[in-house]
Design goal:
Keywords: Membrane, Signal, Transmembrane, Transmembrane helix. It contains 6 helices and 2 strands. The protein is mainly alpha-helical. It has 2 domains: about 5-130, no CATH class; about 135-168.
Length: about 170
């Protein structure tokens, strides 16, 4: 497995627990949520599961290309918001609802902040670095290693055709 794909695996593992909590125990997410709020929380759990499926698709793909980098950047942006929620829950106990006997789900806000901060940084790293070869051409376009091999094959074929190499 490419190092750049590890954030996708971690996201799928971490968010499976989160999604399960939102879907199966929506009442544990907010202090005294209404029935309507519980439905919204369950929908959010379904949304989390869909991000897991996206991660599985990118784990399954053989390469880490520009599309993978863009999805990694998108998922890094997603992890900003759980970090913000966890921080606010730590900063103000009224937000967390701990004063009303609210149980801390999946380790509580400190664990959530740590887990989502790690995932944020991992996805930023995957998006920024991507562990792929990048070449800068004269006209300032970035060409990935995959594109370079494709272009090399096309150039080689054109060269062979032009000079009748390998033909009798």
């Amino acid at each position: 497995m490419l190092f750049s794909k590890i954030p996708f695996l971690l996201h799928a593992l971490v968010e499976t627990a989160g999604a399960s909590s939102f879907i199966l125990k929506p009442q544990s997410q907010l202090p005294k949520p209404s029935a309507a709020a519980q439905l919204v929380l369950q929908s959010f759990g379904g949304l989390l599961l869909s991000t897991n499926l996206i991660c599985v698709v990118f784990l399954w793909r053989p390469d880490f290309d520009d599309t993978s980098r863009l999805v990694a950047a998108s998922l890094s942006f997603w992890h900003v918001w759980p970090c913000y929620r966890a921080y606010m829950r730590l900063a103000d106990s009224r937000v967390d609802g701990t004063g009303s006997g609210q149980v801390k789900t999946l380790g509580g806000p400190a664990v959530h902040l740590g887990a989502h901060a790690v995932l944020f940084l991992a996805f930023v790293g995957a998006a920024a670095i991507g562990f792929r070869l990048v070449f800068q051409s004269d006209d300032a376009k970035v060409i990935s290693y995959t594109s370079l091999t494709k272009y090399s094959a096309m150039i080689g074929e054109a060269f062979a055709t032009q000079f009748s190499i390998g033909r009798s």
